[in-house]
Design brief:
By secondary structure, this protein is of the alpha/beta class. It is built from eleven helices and six strands. Helix content is 33%, strand content 10%. α3 crosses α10.
């Protein structure tokens, strides 16, 4: 696992050069900043689709606007400084950071809007935390959540294809109008391999359900997807039954890399800065997370298993 992580880390600077633009039927991506979060639920033009999901509701999880914890130490202060430095370069006309987020679930517009608001509140809470030496309003102003709400029901392979195409187009659009440089010319700066262009977020049914079943005393979960990951399994292998309690692949090994993992929403800033330094080294196979490993009562989706036991004939 460590050798794989080292190889991926070495290869990462070349990843953006291999991205290919593909046609997409996507039509309405949205950029949400912290300033826009209060209007997010009004701005989203989403079709009304009856939900067939039993667990999803419209619950709201609220972030404490001035929260903090011991993890806000000098290490994080340094990571935020690195983030500020690496989110732009002299050939770009702007400075921006933050993930692209894909809606891959039908129905329940209120829960989707709540998830977006929860993310924005978490970012604001972390960057204005009392545990920081000073508020990072500079980073808060530059945070842009790129919202894609028309990939409902799409598998992760399609999400990755669209995300990689968007990443290259986004990078090109940030170049100064009259520059003669290309993205390849400035690749040595690392601006094309920041977390914004290497990873994306996905919200599906189980993520919306986690609004009602958050980590104990914590928050809902969301999927963090590695953009340049390629499946090592053939179509026949993909049809095999997934081993419990895992949510993807079919082996019983906890170390198996499935190309995505769950991220507690309140770890957004912390994990973004970690990805910038360590890449995919912090991967944890779902449904485990970095902050809940081994405790089945804290696994993402634990509520579904409880529901199945209650509804079984023996229950």
């Amino acid at each position: 696992m460590l050798q794989w992580a080292m190889l991926r880390s070495c290869a990462r600077p070349f990843a953006a050069k291999t991205r290919q633009i593909s046609n997409s039927n996507l039509t309405h991506p949205t950029e949400l900043s912290s300033v826009q979060v209060s209007r997010a639920s009004k701005n989203l033009s989403l079709s009304k689709v009856p939900s067939t999901v039993k667990f999803i509701s419209t619950a709201r999880w609220k972030a404490d606007p001035r929260r903090g914890s011991s993890r806000f130490d000098r290490g994080l202060e340094h990571s935020l400084d690195v983030l500020q430095h690496e989110m732009t370069c002299t050939e770009f006309h702007d400075a921006v950071w933050g993930f692209a987020i894909y809606r891959c679930v039908e129905g329940n517009d209120a829960a989707w809007a709540s998830m977006l608001q929860t993310i924005q509140e978490s970012v604001q809470a972390d960057l204005l935390s009392d545990y920081l030496k000073y508020p990072r309003d500079d980073l808060l102003k530059c945070h842009k959540l790129h919202v894609v709400d028309e990939k409902r029901g799409a598998p992760l392979d399609q999400v990755r294809e669209h995300f990689n195409a968007w990443a290259l187009e986004s990078l090109r659009s940030r170049l100064r109008p009259h520059t003669t440089c290309t993205i390849e010319d400035i690749g040595h700066t690392g601006v094309d391999t920041t977390p914004r262009y290497m990873y994306c977020l996905v919200v599906d049914e189980i993520c919306l359900e986690s609004l009602d079943y958050p980590f104990p005393g914590s928050c809902p979960a969301i999927k963090l997807v590695l953009g340049d990951w390629e499946s090592p399994w053939n179509p026949e292998e993909k049809l095999q039954e997934i081993c419990e309690p895992f949510h993807d692949a079919f082996t019983e090994y906890e170390e198996e890399d499935v190309g995505w993992m769950y991220m507690p929403v309140d770890a957004y800033v912390d994990l973004y800065t970690n990805l910038q330094v360590d890449g995919w080294d912090n991967y944890v196979r779902p449904p485990y997370t970095l902050y809940a490993f081994g405790d089945e009562s804290k696994l993402v989706g634990h509520w579904r298993r409880k529901h199945q036991k209650k509804s079984s004939p023996e229950g």
